[in-house]
Amino acid sequence: MADTTGAGDANSERSHLRVQFVHGLEGSPQGSKARALADAFDALTPAMDTADFEASVATQAAALETFRPDVLVGSSFGGAVVVALLARRLWRGPTLLLAQAARHYDPEARLPRDVTVWLVHGTGDTLIDPEQSRRLAATGDPDRVRLIEVDDDHALHASVARGDLLDWVRGVAGRSE
Prior knowledge:
Number of strands: 7
Oligomer: single chain
Number of helices: 7
Helix content: 25-40%
Mean pLDDT: 92
């Protein structure tokens, strides 16, 4: 059940950076974040049955094995899925969490100390309190974790429209392309 739009397409305008996007409850492989990533990178957004958290983790784990991304991005519910993948050591690469909801699914969620993780949260988020990202960020290695608070809503609409999402992906990957 994966949409591979953007994965492997030949397009000289796009970066060679491979990005796997884990969408949120109301997101999809056709959503604005998925489209922005597919337009800029070699991107994969596997579709998930968001009614089943464990099935969503399994879907993403299988995609990680075959796609082998450089960066893993999770948004809201997708951020909780990504944190579960990190906790189970199924992913150890650069990670970008957008308005993540990890502690909604696991109140004891923690970030691994050996992984670079950037968390972005809108200060105007009325769905997931930005304090949740502050607390999660505090569990990781301060030298590897970056918390970015932006003047935006839960979906980070303005940030995506400005192109900030692409900059964050490049930044967490350590690339300036």
